[in-house]
Structures are given as structure tokens and as C-alpha cells.
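Quick illustration, no need to memorize.
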Amino acid sequence: MFLIRLYTKQCINLPLFWCLHESTDSTVSVLIEHSVLISCFINGEFAVYVCQLSTLECVRVDMMQNENKSNHHCHLYEGKNNILIIRRAQEFQMTLQFNQPVNPSDNFQIEFYIGINTYMLNGTKIIISFGGSQTGNWTGRIIQQQGDACVVGITPSADAIIGKYYTSVAVIGSNGISRTQKDSGTDFYLLFNAWASNDEVYMPNEEERQEYVMNENGYIYQEESGDGRQWYYGQFVEGILDACIKILDDSHMPLVNRGDAVKVCRIGSAMMNSQDDRGVLVGNWSDNYSLGTAPTFWIGSDQILLQYVNKGPVRFAQCWVYAGTFNTFLRCLGIPARVITNFNSAHDNTGNIVTDLIFNSVGNVLELNERLTRDSIWNYHCWNEAYLSRFDLPAYQNLGGWQVVDSTPQETSDGYYRCGPCSVKAIKEGMLGYQFDAPFVFAEVNSDVYKYKLNSQTGKTELLSVDTTYVGMKILTKSIGGNNYEPMDITGTYKYPEGSSKDEETMKNAGRTYKAHLQYDDEQGVEMTLEIPQERVKIGQNFQMAVVFRNLSEDTRTIHGLLVGSTIYYTNIQRAQFKQETFDIVVNGPSLFEQMSVPAKVNQEIFVKVEFTNPFPFSLHDVRMAMQGPNFISYREKLYSEIAIGTSITWMESSVPTRSGNTMVYAVLDCSVLGNVQGNWAIGIKA
């Protein structure tokens, strides 16, 4: 007879082989679930040990932010907590730290959630398992396992919902499932991916991706000559990504639709204006901006979006402000986008893809009848283009590529003030039956102008002429290249050359007829004075005089002049003409000038000076100035109560550059009688 003793021993955090080799005498061991039953003879006694193995547990998750953000072209996004930002349809890596090495029999999975009520069927809950076959469109793999650490690779699907996800690691055992607690350090943002060929926003050219996704600096053209204003998009500024997500949340857009770039563009178009949904910007085309900020005062989008997050709809905007801010929204979420300017842009209120203008005859002059005329033509209008595949349209038509999206509130579309996305190719071919808003966009760039004269006695109108060339005279966007601000003429992407067979086919497709017409333009805002000799001029002697033009507007003006000199009687009757000469001159508007104390270097203080001289024959009151430069100087504002006639002011600020490379400094000046005064300077920051 021998004595049997039973021992129970906890083997916390010890590998299996340690338990099996605990005794060296005759031993029999059996693995039962997470316990090892060991029986053996020790000193003539038979003993049974029940050794409990510890349950597998994930103790730490490393999202490998720096590596992943760099690989996913998200390294420029700013933020104090260095949250992970990645793009869909591309693998990212995570390191899972367990309390013990993972055995082949262990079963764990990674779970991703977006939103509150999450379900696997609608893509708001994602489960990645590694023990067997995987379900769903997201995939995962174990890349490396060393000790108790495991590096895994996760590839989100090409149509995954964009937004903010949170992460959980679950271990499945005999006693159920244990999950890691919610940790903000494992949250991440998922964006559209222009680098992934199976993403609907895929753009094959790297130079174009750098321009239309990564470039923070832009130029918005306001004159056919190529003049305009630079604009800081600031899509990577801290808080802007959260602002863009908030815009989608404020629109009550269902999460399940946020993986569709077409729907995101359409919602964004509606939410950039506050016409009917308390969106980002309030429009104002008057001369009174006392309740907000004049549209000409904005330097870029970041201040607008951050103000929207904190205070709600931002006052005020016009078309270029809407377009610049919408461009930031699109690029920030990963959708390639650019700002477009259409010169002589028609606004077809009647929906007949024709611009109808009705005039009254007043003597020999025609005056526009504003009461009867519903259509209009803007000297320029800005909108956006987004680069999309358009899987929602027939594949055989190949209508993907650049799409018009316009957030300036002009006409409603499906009940909201928005426009697009509309295929640029469809506009060029006159295929106006494809969504969205193709007839309106077509009229903006290619409508004929029908000019009528109203008979005041009969009330009937008489067709005077039809102009087929005035609308959409030129369409410009910024050229590719970070600091290349030359305009790129893209008129040919919207329309064929006037009178060509292709143009005729397009017009036929759109159901159009056209003839010729002459359009008159009244240039205003320029004051002219003559400076004549002080001394009496004698007959037979030469004399000099000066014609002085003063630009009273905020824009550059081109003057076509005719100078005629005649001798007259004292009764003001002309006797003879002795001089006639034509001339053309360009009169620039006021501008700002910048100067730096020393060349810019990282982490070295530098002083920036902005100067302005009042060129007008009147004082300027309540003058606001602002300056900003990404990675160079934070947003600053200054108020001057008065700038007297001919007075110069100098504004100096100190800054410490934070990152080497090329950047821009933006400055703007605005007051009640003057806007669109700006200065923009390229700065090179040395390491």
C-alpha cells in the first residue's frame, strides 16, 4: 500500500514545458483544457499535481502610429496625442502584447467599431480572426511572433466607412470572451485612399496625388489674366479632421453611407453652406459685413472650420470662400480635389439650359429688366472638382474622373442647396441625363445667351440675338506643383472648340441652337483726372500733361483709353482736332509688402514685418489685418482704428518655425470700403 497525495499548484505566467518538467521521476501528464494533470512517484509516494495554466490575455496594443502614418501618406496630420490616421484598402500594422506566448490552440481576434450601435452586416463592426477562415471584406494576417509579442497586419476594405474607429482585442476561451478595455490610444481615423487602385478615389499619377490630396497651399483665380488670391487649405492642421467628421455628423448622414465618396461629396456640398441646414458658411453678397467677417478677409479654410466647430455657422462667404473651404474638407478626408474658376459663369434659374436676358429700350440704350430677367451671368464663379470613379453610373460611358461639386447656394438639388457631383466628361459630351445636376452645370459653362427687347406697349419680347461664346469664356485651376501658381486652362475639359463638329454634336445632344451676339461690359471703379500745365501754353509750343488713373476698386483693372486733343472756342464749340491716340494700361489694386529680419531656420526666432500704405484720397477706418504661415507663424490678427491718407503702417510679429522646407506666408487687409488686399510670400525654412 502507498499514500496518494493531491497537490494543486497555480503556474501563473509560466510556459507549459516548465510544468511538464517539474518532476524527473516516473511521470504521466495529461493536458485538460487550461490545466495540466501530473502524476508521479516521488520518494516512494504517488503524487498528483493539478497545474493551472494562466488564460491568454492581451495586455497592451501598440498602433505603431509613426510607421503607419508615414506609409499611408498621413504623416502631415497634426495633433498632440499622435492618434493613428490611415487610409483604407492598404495594410497597417499593430503590435499585440500578451501575458504569455500565443500557442496554435489559442484563439484571439481584433474588433473595430465605428459609431454607437454597431453591426457586422452594415460595416460598423469589423472582426478580424486569425485562428481560421476570415469573414468580411477586411483581412488580417500575423506578420511576426516573438515571445509574447505578435505583429499583425490589417487591411481595411476598399469601401470601408471613413471616420473614427475604436479598437478591442478579444481572447476566446472555454470560459467565454475577454476583451481589452476601451482605450483612446488605440483609436484611429480611416480615410479615402487615392493611392489604392481599388478605391473609388484612386488617382494613378503621383504628381497629381501630391497636388490634389497633399498640397496645403492653393490659388483661386478671379481674373482671366490669372490674377486672384492665394488660399491656405490647411487640411492637416490640428482639429480640421475632427471638424470634417463633425460636419458629417451634423448632417445626420448615416454611417453606412460614409464609405461612398459620391455621397460624401454630395453631403459636403450641402453642408458647406448654411442656407437650409445650419452648415459651415453664411453667404453675403451685400456691402454690409458688420455682423461677421468680410469674405475678402479670409486667408484660408482652417480658421473657418475651427470657428464652425466652436460657434456654429461662420459669417460671411462668397463663392471663392465656399470653394476654398470645401476643398479643405475633401482633401482632408482623402478625396482628390481642386478649385475651379469659370469666367462669365451663367446662372440658369429657369432650368432650360439657356441664359435669357430681357432688356428695356431707353432711347438708344438697352437696360436690363431686372424684374423679368431671372437668369444672370457672373463675371466669375468658383466651384470644386473631385476625382471619383462614379461606380453609380453606367460603366460603358466611362464617366469617372473629375466631377463638379459646388457648395455655393444657388439652386436646390433634391431639396437642399447643393450641386453635384456631376461628371465633367458628361458636360463636355452634352449627356445631361446622368446624375447629379448636369443641366445646371452645363448652362454655367456652355449655355447660349438669348437677348430680348421688351415692347413696353404690347408686353411682348423680340429676340435680338443669340451669343454662343460668351458663357464659359475661360475655365482655370492651379497648375500642378507645390509652389507653381500659374493658371492651368482646363476649358477644353468642359467643352469642344466653338464651331467644331464635336461641339455641334454636343449641342445636338443637349438640344441646343445657337447664333452670334455681342456682349457689352461696363468697367467701373477707376477714377481719372487730367493734370494740365500750370503755365500758360503759347501757340506753336509743345506742352506736357498727365492722365492719372486711380484704382478705387480692390481688383486689377485694364483700361482701354482714347486721348483726343482739340482747340475750342470759348462757347465750347470745337474748332480743330490736333491729337488723337489710343492706349492700354493696367492699374493694380493696393497690396501688402513683407520683410523678414533674418533667413528662416527651424526653432530660431524670426521677425516678420508687413507694410501697407493707404493710396486713397480718404482715410480708412476699422482696418483688420491678419497673417498666417503653416509651420512658420500661427494665425494672428490686428486692428487699426484709422489709416490716414497716404499713411504707411508697419505690423511686426515674431515666430519660431517648426519644420524645415518650403511654405507660404499669407496676409490680408480688410475694412468697410476696401477688401481683397492681400500679400503672399514663399518662404524657405532651413533645418
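The two ends are 85 Å apart (CA to CA).
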